[in-house]
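Researcher: Sequence recovery benchmark, item below. Answer with residues only.
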């Protein structure tokens, strides 16, 4: 109970940081009316008659009791999610797993609070999605929120060890213990960290060129905003994937690149393994100056600190944004054909001849909460899905020819309702195993981008950060970290987002961070990193 109360204290402080974040990917729409009886029949028929043609795990559950798999994840269900969930359950049971698939969708703005309450109160569920830019695996672990997995994997799903390379499994550890299962939804060898996204359609329409400097980026965003507002009547703003996340896209333009900047905006580690607080760095100052100039030019939403996450995400999905730091942009409708052009937003990198830094190969994962009475259920489900493309298709796209149609072996097309909403969709960034990946047949991405999704096409340019596999155990400084994160939200975040200028405000904010215990936190971080590298 003491650790659960500490978890409550620390995550309560972190809620202030992440309450207005937009998340790791697009959220799915809320459910509409229930699906038809014909769809139900089709789901039942397919689930009961189709047998897996690929390897699946041997069931380790000896009881005939059907055990629930309550999977807590952010977002919302699509219209026919219940029907597909039944089909997933039926397929698992036909394959010998006595499991009922029961995903629980939690609205983005309630995510941190809901999970905090569930863990601190002992609520029973079997699978938890983890986003390292919200609450890290090591933070959940240090507060007793997760179950150690090494022995469980060895007992129930030993073949799972072969599905991921050593770098991913290393990143799934806290200390010597495996605490989570990678969500290998794309090859994240460093290139995603540092991307700037933009609307290909609008850039072509307005005759814009890819900016080569940060000053050019400000000017291009200003032009884009003016022309887009004249065309659509909507004033668009620069979208940030996460308000607290360091804007690595800007960092590539600095002479000191490459260096690691943590997802939460707190830590910086250079290639010689020297750790410091990122907000004390010259790079942070440059970030703030860029953001402040953008804010003064009206390119950042005037109420960015208070804008609801749902509003930010809705603008992103509609494509009503400028150039964006990290992911951004949504579908654009082709007026002539009436079809949706998927992935209209493409990406580019500042100074793309510079190295690409592999620092966080594991951004998303799935863990077994410490409150699970049957921890094996989550592992068995994950291995069942990862080990079969047919099973992954069912989870991600739903029922073949009902909610999606295959296009060859490696593409798919979603079936949508009259409102152009997919009948079923599961956010692949939460759980996909990329060797079984299918591409959307309506995508507009290049062959190079497609290859980059499933592999590292910049391997010769990729360098590894010393933080790979290192997970900071915050328990020794949990009080200081909680106080520091709360102060960061109040004092540093407005500067980081450009709402107030760096000059004249930073020194006072830094004094408050030090009073909260920031020096003690970074000293502990450096000690642990040094020890990790010495024993690696």
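Model:
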């Amino acid at each position: 109970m003491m650790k659960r109360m500490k978890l409550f204290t620390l995550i309560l402080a972190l809620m202030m940081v992440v309450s207005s974040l937009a998340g790791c990917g697009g959220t799915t729409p809320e459910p509409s009316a229930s699906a038809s009886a014909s769809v139900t029949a089709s789901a039942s028929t397919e689930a009961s008659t189709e047998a897996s043609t690929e390897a699946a795990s041997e069931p380790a559950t000896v009881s005939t009791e059907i055990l629930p798999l309550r999977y807590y994840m952010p977002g919302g269900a699509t219209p026919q999610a219940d029907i597909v969930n039944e089909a997933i359950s039926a397929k698992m049971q036909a394959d010998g797993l006595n499991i009922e698939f029961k995903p629980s969708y939690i609205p983005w703005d309630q995510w941190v609070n809901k999970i905090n309450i569930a863990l601190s109160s002992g609520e029973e569920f079997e699978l938890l999605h983890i986003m390292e830019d919200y609450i890290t695996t090591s933070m959940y672990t240090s507060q007793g929120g997760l179950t150690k997995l090494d022995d469980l994997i060895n007992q129930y799903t030993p073949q799972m060890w072969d599905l991921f390379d050593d770098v991913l499994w290393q990143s799934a550890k806290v200390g010597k213990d495996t605490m989570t299962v990678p969500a290998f939804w794309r090859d994240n060898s460093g290139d995603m960290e540092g991307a700037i996204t933009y609307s290909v359609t609008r850039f072509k329409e307005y005759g814009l060129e890819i900016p080569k400097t940060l000053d050019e980026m400000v000017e291009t965003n200003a032009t884009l905003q003016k022309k887009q507002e004249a065309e659509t009547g909507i004033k668009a703003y620069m979208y940030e994937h996460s308000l607290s996340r360091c804007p690595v896209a800007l960092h590539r333009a600095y002479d000191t690149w490459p260096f690691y900047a943590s997802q939460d905006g707190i830590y910086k580690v250079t290639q010689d393994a020297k750790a410091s607080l990122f907000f004390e760095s010259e790079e942070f100052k440059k970030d703030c100056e860029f953001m402040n100039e953008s804010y003064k030019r009206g390119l950042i939403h005037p109420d960015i600190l208070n804008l609801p996450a749902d509003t930010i995400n809705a603008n992103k999905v509609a494509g009503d944004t400028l150039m964006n730091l990290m992911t951004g942009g949504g579908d654009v409708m082709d007026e002539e054909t009436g079809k949706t052009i998927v992935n209209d937003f493409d990406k580019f990198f500042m100074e793309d001849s510079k190295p690409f830094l592999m620092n966080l190969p594991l951004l998303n994962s799935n863990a077994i909460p410490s409150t699970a009475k049957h921890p094996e259920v989550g592992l068995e489900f994950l291995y069942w899905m990862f080990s079969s493309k047919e099973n992954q298709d069912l989870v991600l796209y739903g029922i073949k020819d009902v909610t999606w149609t295959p296009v060859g072996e490696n593409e798919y097309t979603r079936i949508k309702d009259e409102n152009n909403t997919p009948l079923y969709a599961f956010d692949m960034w939460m759980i996909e195993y990329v060797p079984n990946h299918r591409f959307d047949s309506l995508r507009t991405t290049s062959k190079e981008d497609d290859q980059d999704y499933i592999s590292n096409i910049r391997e010769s340019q990729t360098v590894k950060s010393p933080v790979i596999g290192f997970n900071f155990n915050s328990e020794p400084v949990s009080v200081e970290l909680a106080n520091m994160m709360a102060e960061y939200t109040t004092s540093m975040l407005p500067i980081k987002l450009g709402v107030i200028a760096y000059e004249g405000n930073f020194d006072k904010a830094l004094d408050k961070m030090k009073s909260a215990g920031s020096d003690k936190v970074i000293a502990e971080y450096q000690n642990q990193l040094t020890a990790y590298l010495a024993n690696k």
